[in-house]
């Protein structure tokens, strides 16, 4: 406990208030899976997005945002809130690496796993008040009014868990006024609508200086039906109205505030599942007892459009050579749909988790299978996926900001996702010294 307190104090002391000309409150809205062209070319795509397009016209935007390795929700959202890559912030995937499934499909929910200060930390150190609704990796975050994202079983007990992990007393008091909150596992449009009502109420009652809010239904629908489907378009248009509700509430509370809209990754259609587990099992690198893993020497870590490969003992030269040979063979087999294989040095150069000894990047159209008994080839379990190579244009994400101090009509071009957190820090008038990116404001 003493060691944790010392580390927290050291992190807080690292911050300094930036002598900005005019610091502003910030509302940061994430729309999971929102592609830049959906907003930039909404009319051509037949999309009615009046609220997102109004922000586009009122402020500055990026043509595209190059994301991180892997292009997944949890690593990306942690980069958005820290300004560093996964190898530095410590969130290497959506799921924890769990080769024997002891954690029962646990996700990287806990902010204590983030190795660097966040925007929430920076705001608190500067004496600002913060709020959060459903942002990934936010359980236990240093947020004044926190409704974090977490689920376990999808039963009614999940809401009890959330109430226990949220700011004490916050969820029950809000539910008395607003009715039941959405279950953490609920990624539907109805779930987003409920969380937006709670976010609006938090804005109006607590008036936070910095607030994060996360909307997930577009990502969910694009997984189910694919990008550019009528179903995905309809969900996005509904989300636009939720953005309007949030923006109006923010401007009522903070007329001098700034609204920032971000997303975490793009999307591509997929048709094929790639069972990467079977060749590892057949090579003796994974041992099964029934359907369960009883032992392993090397294991794929599922990242959707990619997979990290983790060695149990990175110093075992024999296993390393065996895996390298296997991956070279698989890359030549068109059934596996492998575009590139990154070795450990490549992974680190691209900012991926240091736990990955290799990274297998699939071609668009292919995704990692979720079951070791899936046939090869087999139809994809989703119709849309991300997690692919961040250099692909289809994986680019969205950035828009509008409000006090933001240039109107400025096109920022193609930016790095690591630039977003220091830009928000500059708007807030706080310091984020560890950020690897730069502020986009002059």
Please give the structural blueprint.
Blueprint: H1 2-13, E1 26-31, H2 36-40, H3 50-58, E2 60-61, E3 64-66, H4 73-82, H5 86-89, H6 119-125, E4 130-133, E5 145-147, H7 157-165, H8 170-178, H9 189-206, E6 210-215, H10 217-225, H11 230-253, E7 258-262, E8 268-269, E9 272-274, H12 277-282, E10 286-289, E11 292-296, E12 298-302, E13 306-311, H13 317-332, E14 338-343, H14 344-349, E15 358-362, E16 366-368, E17 378-379, E18 384-385, E19 399-403, E20 414-416, H15 420-428
Parallel strand pairs: 1-6, 1-7, 3-20, 4-5, 4-6, 9-16
Antiparallel strand pairs: 2-19, 7-19, 8-18, 9-17, 10-11, 12-13, 13-15, 14-15
Q: How would you characterize the overall build of this protein?
A:
It is a single chain. The chain is α/β, with parallel strands linked by helices and 442 residues long. The protein has two domains: 279 residues, Alkaline Phosphatase, subunit A; 110 residues, Gyrase A, domain 2. Helices cover 35% and strands 18% of the residues. It contains 15 helices and 20 strands. The strands form six sheets. A seven-stranded mixed beta sheet has the order 2-19-7-1-6-4-5, with helices on both faces. The protein has a four-stranded antiparallel beta sheet with strand order 12-13-15-14. A three-stranded mixed beta sheet has the order 16-9-17, with no helix packed on it. The longest helix has 24 residues. The two termini are 42 Å apart. The N terminus is likely disordered.
């Amino acid at each position: 406990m003493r060691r944790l307190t010392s580390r927290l104090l050291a992190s807080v002391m690292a911050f300094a208030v930036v002598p900005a000309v005019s610091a502003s409150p910030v509302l940061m809205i994430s729309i999971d899976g929102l592609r830049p062209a959906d907003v930039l070319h909404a009319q051509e795509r037949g999309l009615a997005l009046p609220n997102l397009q109004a922000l586009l016209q009122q402020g500055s935007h990026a043509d595209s945002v190059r994301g991180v390795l892997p292009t997944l929700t949890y690593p990306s959202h942690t980069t958005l809130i820290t300004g560093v890559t996964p190898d530095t912030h410590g969130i290497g995937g959506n799921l924890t690496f769990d080769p024997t499934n002891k954690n029962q499909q646990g996700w990287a929910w806990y902010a204590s796993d983030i190795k660097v200060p966040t925007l929430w930390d920076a705001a608190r150190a500067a004496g600002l008040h913060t709020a959060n609704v459903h942002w990934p990796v936010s359980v236990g975050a240093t947020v004044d009014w926190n409704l974090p994202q977490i689920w376990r079983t999808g039963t009614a007990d999940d809401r009890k868990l959330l109430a226990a992990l949220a700011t004490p007393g916050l969820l029950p008091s809000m539910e008395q006024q607003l009715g039941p909150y959405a279950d953490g596992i609920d990624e539907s449009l109805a779930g987003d609508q409920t969380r937006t009502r709670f976010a609006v109420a938090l804005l109006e009652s607590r008036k936070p200086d910095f607030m994060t809010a996360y909307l997930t239904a577009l990502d969910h629908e694009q997984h189910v039906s694919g990008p550019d489907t009528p179903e995905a378009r309809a969900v996005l248009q509904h989300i636009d109205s939720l953005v309007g509700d949030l923006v109006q509430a923010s401007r009522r509370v903070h007329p001098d505030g700034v609204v920032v809209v971000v997303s975490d990754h793009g999307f591509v259609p997929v048709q094929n599942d790639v069972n990467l587990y079977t060749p590892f099992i057949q090579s003796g690198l994974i041992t099964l007892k029934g359907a369960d893993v009883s032992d392993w020497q090397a294991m794929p870590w599922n990242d959707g459009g990619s997979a990290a490969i983790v060695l149990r003992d990175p110093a075992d030269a024999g296993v390393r050579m065996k895996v390298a040979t296997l991956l070279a063979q698989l890359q030549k087999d068109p059934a596996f749909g492998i575009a590139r294989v990154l070795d450990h040095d490549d992974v680190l150069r691209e900012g991926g988790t240091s736990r990955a000894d290799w990274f297998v990047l699939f071609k668009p159209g292919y995704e990692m299978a979720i079951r070791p008994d899936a046939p090869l080839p087999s139809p994809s379990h989703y119709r849309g996926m991300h997690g692919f190579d961040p250099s692909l244009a289809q994986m680019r994400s969205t950035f828009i900001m509008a409000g006090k101090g933001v240039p109107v009509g400025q096109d920022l071009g193609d930016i790095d996702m690591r630039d977003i957190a220091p830009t928000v820090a500059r708007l807030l008038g706080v310091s984020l010294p560890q950020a690897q990116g730069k502020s986009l404001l002059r």
